[in-house]
Design goal:
17 helices; Growth Hormone, Chain: A; about 0% strand; mainly alpha; globular
Amino acid sequence: MTDLTREPSETIEGNRTAAARLATRLAFFASGFAVACWAPLIPFVKTRIGADEAQLGLLLLCLGLGSVTAMPLTGLLVSRIGARALILTGGFGMALVLPLLPLAPSIWLLAPALALFGASLGMIDVAMNIHAVEVEERSRRPLMSGFHGLFSLGNFAGAGMTTLLLSLGTAPLPAALLGAVLTFLAVIYAMPRFLRARGGAPEPFVLPRGLVLVLAVLAGVAFLTEGAMLDWGALLVLERGLLSPESAGLGYMTLSAAMVLARLTGDRIITRLGDRRVLVLGGGLTLSGFGLLLLAPWPVLALLGFALIGLGIANMVPILFSAAGRQRAMPPSLAIAAVTTTGYAGILMGPAVIGFVAEATSLGAAFWGLALLVTLVPLLARVVTAR
């Protein structure tokens, strides 16, 4: 039955908001999908250009530098031209650059391609989160966990599709081209549904302080863990002789599936257990996952390790963002911006550090060091959740 009491303007606004929710979900999915298509290609690209661990670390640093350079610039531009144009620029940029990555014949050509890929990723990540906040405010109900769940679902789909294609004998370039086409189509479909630009003065970026510094560090650890699994997880199981190059992407695919499950149920879990318990439990699950991944002699147990890590880290970031919004050491909007920037620096630049440590010691030792960092999450859970 039609609601005769609703004003036409309210109906139009409701339809626009519903369309914007769909567009936001597509942006999160496309971003996660495109970056995950890159993960299973890494061993092939590494072999093609003849890079060692240190050189691969430098290349991944190019991706990270491109992204964190684009992030503050995106924050400044959003206030002038709106999030929509920057989401489109970042999404189309990722689709255009992705096929260039397996084509690059040398380190010197791969480095700028990865920097462009990272810049596009950084741009769409910041812009779509800003857009998501506005959509959430207009919808008057929590939506952020679901949006991030779509990013994880995109990760799962991208890693799964590319791994399947490679395992069936598809060359890296056609696999990357299919990923690029699907990313492009998702962004095209979302394009007319984004909210339009709102003018305003740019907000200044400030360095985190007080509790916000703690939140930023923990966000960096959580994102670094995810980034390490994306960029180095396949190489770790290859080094341990647990999986073949064609199926090495199964690890990150498993982690992504676990993160999708945890994030899509995250609001209910946090409501039932509370922030502190979820952080402690998440830290414990992540550490258990690292133990299995680094010590298990069988592939099934190593894949279980990926799953435990995914379940453990999935809801850390939403809790940290919520805590940033509640704290009073800094204006909440600036605190969330600082935590977000530090977190994404962890996921994009941290894996480069893993490469340097792996070259100096071993990849296994680098992952043990990462596990040690994860212990900060349960240890500081009380500080994070104190009212």
